[in-house]
Write the structure tokens for this entry.
Amino acid sequence: MNINVVNQLNMFDETAANQLLLQLKKKPNSAIAFATGSTPIGMYKKLVAWFRNGDIDFSQIQAFNLDEFADLDIESPNSFFSFLKRNLYNSVNIEPSHIHPIKNTEASVKACSNYEKEINSHGGIDLAILGIGLNGHIGYNEPGSDFDSLTHLVQLSSQTIEANSNMFGSYEETPKLGITMGIRTIMNSRKILLMARGEEKAKIVHRALYGSISKDIPASILQLHSNMVVVLDRKAAKYLKETA
Ligand code: GLP
């Protein structure tokens, strides 16, 4: 585990974006799993800026969504697919045919197994970009998720629905179901970039990286990944000197 604690606020996004740049230099046709949430937005901005300067080329990548809402039209502005279009895909040179949204209009079991097939047909994920939920979720693998899971349908926890509700106006209007790459899908990625910023993430980051590996904290399994880079701001790294 390679933990980078970034002291200067403006360097957080650049440090994370640099991981993608290195990946694409090494393997231009990498399959990337892209996360949503507030954490990677600045990194995506940085990548768009680098693209505009001619410093990074997305033409060969295969772009996958880490997760999606299951009970929301993927063309809705609040879908994770729309988020990625808005924050990255529409502003860089990703081939439209290389963009792989989770097709949640198919019956969910079929959508999940098809997504796994789609990932495998591109040789698996080279780099999975992850945030972490306040309860330790990765993608939408909520506490209790099976470490052996592939892409699957999930009932979102009330804490996650609450956290998402600001985008939808109220708890009632917020989607209750997600489709996510499973923990095994994520762990099978050749490299993982885990990002967290802000004091509210400090406890869960410490628990995930140094606590016992347990299904209660899905991100704790990442301790077993042999090629993981963690990028944290100083606030999220607040408790990292101690071990749990
Ligand atoms: C959502 C996403 C996750 C993301 C998490 C953290 O639940 N499904 O993939 O990592 O939120 O979001 P944020 O970065 O806004 O804290």
Notes: The beta strands are 2-6, 31-34, 62-65, 67-69, 99-100, 127-130, 152-155, 177-180, 191-196, 228-233. The radius of gyration is 17 Å. The pocket of GLP is lined by residues 35-39, 66-67, 131-133, 139-140, 160 (CB under 6 Å).
